[in-house]
């Protein structure tokens, strides 16, 4: 094709047309990329402050727990009975939030399980958070399914071991058969040698006496010349005086013995039979045991989270626990929530299991923030459950400082903290009952705020911002999860405060509450019940309710809001039922101020 070919020219033209178009698209993409710059790129441009943020979360269990060695050692001295195959005493652990109860119990249980594996002592620890799993059915179902899963895993391991025994038995029998065949072949070889030795012996002795033999062997060469060729063939090939001496013959025999000539020495120890150290007598016994284990595995039925009668769930849980010989430690965190929601039936059943179990033993560790929750237990449950009690006191500011310094060494990069950050976090947390969880949340949130502002160092300002943020987040979460009736009572208090009413009394709250119920067509509770709801809001720290005396007019409860009014109102209005009553203007009755 020539250079003037129209097709070539057209192709070149097309290429020339495409190039400017492609470059325009490419420039447009670059412009789009530049315009989208800043959403994540700016955040990623700064150096990270954290080395391992998870260390500052409540779910993290550290390798060392400062200022809790006494409580940990006491738990260990109680639970060491499990490593001896005995039943440990039940333990109740008390303490306010953030005093290290759960972290210490998890630390001890982890050590218990690792030590039990070291000494081959069967011991299982199961943890349940009763704030989430708060009914008897759910607790028993969750425990049953955990032990069913463990049982199946152990059965699979045992079947695998038995199948390995069958494989070893096959190899042993095959080797024995091969050795038997080899022995048969070697016996034929020895038979020939024996025949040869017999022949040689007959040649050496013949029918003559020992004296004749001696005379024959001492004959001179001249006398030997007179012997026939047949006589010479019958003579021993290694007779004394020939080329091979007795010592040379002995050395040759030894050399053949060491070489073995393919024949094993009788001094070798026989291989032990694969069933010698097992309780089985035959291959069929092993196969029968595998079939039994497979039937056991198939018989375990997982418990659904709803739908079964409670007694059936308990029966499945009981069978799953008692399947193996072991010590079981059940850790019930927030145990008071379980008692509050579903009574003490669960604790009664768990604490009485040992009288019926045949193979396993059960011990209970209960963890509670409420020191008085046992007052509501049945006396029989209380006596069996509270065999040992451990109290976790609140941390002081110095102890909190040690905890934060211990975690911060792992959590942050070097030089990320100013000197006043940890003491300030410890001081804030010490004001709230020595809550280590609160101190860790403060330090983590301060680091996150510093990182978002692309600051290289966490300073006091970030801690104070974190304090305000945590408080607001706590209020938002508590208000958001309130029941509808409590939200209506709180909304009535907010409306009164927004209208300039101070030192609100219960009667005024009840009047506004009734109007709000009418607006959303909700049931109206009695004034006594509304008073109880106000007390609950007071316990949560959302309102401040103080009983004051009015002299001869009696006593009344004065109520004020303890949380930011705008943020709290916004959370309430996010509820779909309350979103239509934001324009309600309550009628406030005029009153004389004292």
From TrEMBL:
Domain of life of the organism encoding this protein: Archaea
UniProt-listed HAMAP family: ORC1_type_DNA_replic_protein
ATP-binding among keywords: yes
Record organism: Natronolimnohabitans innermongolicus JCM 12255
Family: Belongs to the CDC6/cdc18 family.
Task performed by this protein: Involved in regulation of DNA replication.
Keyword Signal among UniProt keywords: no
Region (Disordered): 1-38, 199-281
Record key words, sorted: ATP-binding, DNA replication, Nucleotide-binding
Domain Cdc6 C-terminal: 490-572
Gene3D superfamilies on file: 1.10.8.60, P-loop containing nucleotide triphosphate hydrolases, Winged helix-like DNA-binding domain superfamily/Winged helix DNA-binding domain
Domain annotation AAA+ ATPase: ranges: 87-396
Binding site for ATP: 99-103, 395, 407
Protein name per Swiss-Prot or TrEMBL: ORC1-type DNA replication protein
Biased composition (Polar residues): 199-219
Record-level Gene Ontology MF annotations: ATP binding
GO BP annotations, alphabetical order: DNA replication
């Amino acid at each position: 094709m020539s250079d003037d070919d129209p097709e070539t020219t057209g192709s070149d033209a097309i290429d020339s047309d495409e190039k400017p178009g492609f470059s325009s698209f490419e420039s447009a993409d670059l412009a789009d990329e530049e315009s989208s710059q800043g959403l994540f790129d700016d955040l990623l441009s700064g150096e990270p402050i954290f080395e391992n943020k998870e260390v500052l979360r409540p779910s993290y269990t550290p390798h060392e727990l400062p200022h809790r060695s006494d409580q940990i050692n006491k738990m260990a001295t109680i639970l060491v009975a499990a490593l001896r195959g005995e039943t440990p005493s039940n333990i109740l652990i008390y303490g306010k939030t953030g005093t290290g109860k759960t972290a210490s119990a998890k630390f001890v249980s982890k050590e218990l399980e690792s030590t039990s594996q070291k000494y081959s002592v069967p011991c299982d620890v199961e943890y349940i958070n009763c704030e989430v799993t708060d009914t008897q059915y759910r607790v028993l179902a969750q425990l049953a399914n955990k032990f069913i899963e463990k049982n199946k895993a152990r059965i699979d391991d045992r079947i695998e071991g038995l199948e390995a025994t069958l494989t070893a038995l096959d190899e042993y029998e095959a080797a024995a058969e091969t050795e038997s065949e080899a022995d048969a072949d070697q016996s034929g070889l020895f038979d020939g040698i024996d025949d040869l030795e017999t022949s040689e012996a007959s040649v050496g002795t013949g029918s003559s006496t020992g004296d004749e033999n001696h005379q024959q062997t001492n004959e001179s060469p001249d006398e030997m010349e007179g012997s026939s060729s047949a006589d010479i063939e019958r003579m021993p090939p290694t007779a004394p005086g020939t080329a091979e001496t007795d010592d040379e013959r002995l050395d040759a025999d030894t050399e053949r013995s060491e070489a073995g000539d393919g024949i094993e020495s009788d001094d070798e120890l026989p291989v032990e039979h694969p069933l010698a150290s097992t309780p089985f007598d035959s291959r069929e016994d092993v196969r029968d045991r595998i079939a039994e284990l497979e039937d056991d595995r198939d018989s375990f039925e997982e418990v659904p989270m709803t739908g079964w009668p409670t007694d059936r769930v308990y029966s499945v849980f009981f069978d799953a626990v008692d399947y193996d010989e072991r010590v079981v430690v059940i850790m019930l965190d927030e145990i008071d929530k379980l008692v509050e929601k579903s009574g003490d039936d669960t604790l009664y059943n768990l604490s009485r299991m040992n009288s019926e179990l045949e193979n396993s033993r059960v011990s209970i560790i209960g963890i509670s923030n409420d020191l008085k929750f046992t007052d509501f237990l049945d006396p029989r449950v209380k006596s069996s459950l509270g065999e040992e009690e451990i109290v976790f006191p609140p941390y002081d500011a110095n102890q909190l400082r040690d905890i934060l310094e211990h975690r911060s060494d792992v959590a942050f990069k070097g030089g990320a903290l100013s000197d006043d950050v940890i003491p300030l976090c410890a001081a804030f947390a010490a004001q709230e009952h020595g809550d280590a969880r609160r101190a860790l949340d403060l330090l983590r949130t301060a680091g996150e705020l510093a990182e978002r502002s692309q600051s290289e160092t966490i300073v006091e300002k970030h801690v104070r911002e974190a304090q305000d943020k945590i408080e607001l987040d706590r209020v938002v979460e508590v208000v958001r999860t309130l029941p509808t009736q409590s939200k209506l009572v709180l909304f009535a208090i907010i409306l009164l405060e927004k209208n300039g009413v101070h030192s609100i009394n219960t009667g005024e709250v009840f009047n506004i509450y009734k109007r709000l119920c009418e607006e959303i067509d909700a049931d109206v509770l009695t004034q006594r019940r509304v008073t109880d709801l106000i007390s609950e809001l007071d316990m949560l720290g959302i309102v401040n309710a103080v009983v004051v005396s009015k002299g001869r007019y009696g006593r009344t409860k004065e109520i004020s809001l303890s949380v930011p009014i705008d943020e709290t109102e916004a959370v309430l209005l996010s509820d779909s039922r309350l979103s239509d009553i934001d324009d309600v203007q309550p009628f406030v009755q005029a009153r004389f101020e004292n």
